[in-house]
Amino acid sequence: MRGSWSGLLALLWAGGCLGLSFHLPPQARKCLKEELHRDVMVTGEYEVSEAAAPGIRADLRVTDSSGHILYSKDDAKKGKFAFTTDDYEIYEICFESHGQPGNFRVPDQLVTLNIKHGVEARNYEDIAKAEKLKPLEVDLRRLEDLSESIVKDFAFMKQREEEMRDTNESTSARVFYFSIFSMLCLVGLATWQVFYLRRFFKAKKLIE
């Protein structure tokens, strides 16, 4: 029997880290959905415990909201993946179990997943070696990147707030004009009914 599980996290800061572990039953699918900004580096490290029965494997897929595969691994056991987001959208990380467990109970596989994004995903040790930075300079670089990410997030939230405000104002204006149009239609219909009934009663000589 197939099962499903999903989590949705609104990641407002460009620097962050998420570590979790869960059990993956046979023939089940469990996914993690993350909402990420554009040009955000994402790294992940995963480990799946050995299956207790032969023929059972866990596949890993990392896709965007359009279904494009960013990372794929059949019979995923242990490894890493990394990608940079192309646009602001929802990205999905899924583990899916395949294989028939037979007529006996098979223990669930334990999946450990550690995701880093933004500032946390950058390897400042490699940056320090490449640019020959001192420890203090590395800390300053990290703080600079974190400050820049916070500024970008505030700008993004301001943009979203403006878009939502414009949408609310546009919706309110449309509702207002629709109400006026409906009122005019009702007034027109009532006027037409009055004249129609007046002509009808005159034709029946019920009124002069």
UniProtKB/TrEMBL annotation:
The chain crosses the membrane at residues 175-197. InterPro entries: Emp24-like, GOLD_dom. Residues 1-19 form the signal peptide. It holds the Pfam family EMP24_GP25L. It is found in: Endoplasmic reticulum membrane; Membrane. This is GOLD domain-containing protein. It is a single-pass type I membrane protein. Belongs to the EMP24/GP25L family. The keyword Transmembrane helix applies. Keywords: Endoplasmic reticulum, Membrane, Signal, Transmembrane, Transmembrane helix. Residues 29-117 form the GOLD domain. GO terms for cellular component: endoplasmic reticulum membrane.
